[in-house]
Amino acid sequence: MTDGILPMTDADLDEVAALEARCHAYPWSRGNFADALVAGYGAWLVREDGRLASYSAMMRGVEEAHLLNITVTPELQGRGRGTAFLGFLLAQAREWSARRVLLEVRPGNMAALAMYRRNGFSEIGRRRGYYHGPAGSEDAIVMERVL
Fold it and tell me: Is 104 considered catalytic here?
């Protein structure tokens, strides 16, 4: 049962950072999330039966939104949670009067790439050396969804 999409607050940061560390090889730090809140970025989370299920951070720009982070707990991946949350984020971007949403994704993140493509995102470029990894840097695929 979904408890709903809630604004992320300082009280959520330890829990969000712990899930981030569990889900990503090179996670955002607690401080990165705290900085996003201080900067006024949109940051939300979803709870299911009181437990953190997913979270996101999105930056507002001039006529665009930049999806910085969207994560679903591994136990719930592949069940439509990411797609549903992405739908909320796209609606939020429209409320901000954005004309497009941008994001970066690792080329090897096949599940995320498929979800973004199913939801109208297309590749518009690459950022060389964007991600750090065990074998050095890795490019990012830059994707766009026109609203």
Answer: yes
pLDDT single digits (tens) 63-79: 999 999 999 999 999 99
Q: What is the token pair recorded at 82? A: 């990411």
Residue corresponding to tokens 């981030």: 20
- Per annotation, catalytic residue among 20, 41, 55, 116: 116
User: pTM of the entire structure?
Assistant: 0.93
Asked: is 2-146 a CATH 3.40.630.30 domain? The reply is yes
Q: Which residue out of 15, 48, 104, 123 is catalytically annotated?
A: 104
In order, the DSSP letters of the chain are: -EEEEEE--GGGHHHHHHHHHHH-SSPPPHHHHHHHHHTT-EEEEEEETTEEEEEEEEEEETTEEEEEEEEE-GGGTTTTHHHHHHHHHHHHHHHTT-SEEEEEE-TT-HHHHHHHHHTT-EEEEEEEEEEEETTEEEEEEEEEEE-
Length in residues, the chain = 147
Within 10 Å of residue 3's Cβ, how many Cβ atoms?
A: 13
